[in-house]
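I have been asked to look over a protein record a colleague put together. Alongside the sequence sits a line of tokens, each denoting a local backbone shape. I have pasted the whole thing underneath without changing anything:
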Amino acid sequence: MIGFVQFPEWIKPEIFPGLPLRWYGLMYLVAFTITFLLVRYQAREQKLDVKDDEILNLFFWAIIGLIVGARVFATTIYDPTGTYLRKPWLIFWPFDEQFRFTGLQGMSYHGGVVGVVVAEIIYLRVKKWRFFEWADMMVAGIPLGYTFGRLGNFINGELFGRVTSVSWGMIFPYAQRFPSDQPWVQEAARKAGMETENLGKFVNLPRHPSQLYEAFFEGIFLWLILWFVFRKRKPFHGFIFSVYLIGYGVIRFIIEYFREPDIGIGFPIKFGPADNPTYLLLSPWNFTTGQILNFFMIVAGLVLIPVLRKLDARAAAEKEQKGTKKQSMRKLRKKIR
């Protein structure tokens, strides 16, 4: 019985062979479109006095912030070579050394979040709109769009998981191959149902399809919770945004155990075996860069909830006080008359 799945040969990164049009870019376009439609739906649902053009402008600056933040994080925090720190002009340079168009390869989700938040704070302050009101609407739609971004990673055959023996483990064409004479490789191949006698000198072992895990849990699953459970039940502005930070942080933190860390970075924090290779899960106490950033997301969400609740209660009390004061003034005017 075969205990693994071959990556489909018919899936190619390019939409049309020979042309610089990739499914990954198209997936991002689909993601932005879905999120825009969901935000516009909520704006109309809440009967906000905003035009579609204004929401498009909001998304334009959000996309700019996302690209800047995602690239800066990817080329600094996730680049162990220091190339981009020495040559910062390459961060947004979309060509290789042969001047072939490659696009902006390498994006950091957490950097994208920071970039979007900064861009939206600036834009919404100019428009005099409430940040957390729009942040709630944005994150209520983002996970569903995010699903397509992870599908783009899957189509590219990138960001795959660690070696596994589960029956749905997948052999990715660009994954690292291992010497077949190593005992652990032989054992992993045997558990996966491979014929160990015909492995060859190097073997490509099954990996967790972590992109699909993320597409479902960080995308569809989280969206269903935010959209159908919290969207119409939020006690104050910013609540859904806070829940999103916590929910995404927790889900991604767990999935990081199945996803292979970036080569060259490995585990910045190690409480488990020091010789833990990135492609194996040997200890839950060796933490990736992604898990560290997710931890900060969770903390931010947990801190925001009581802070925003207190600010909302204070605003409600001030509003009630102003209403009481106005009512007293009306009564006083009637007496004077």
Observations:
- The mean pLDDT is 90.
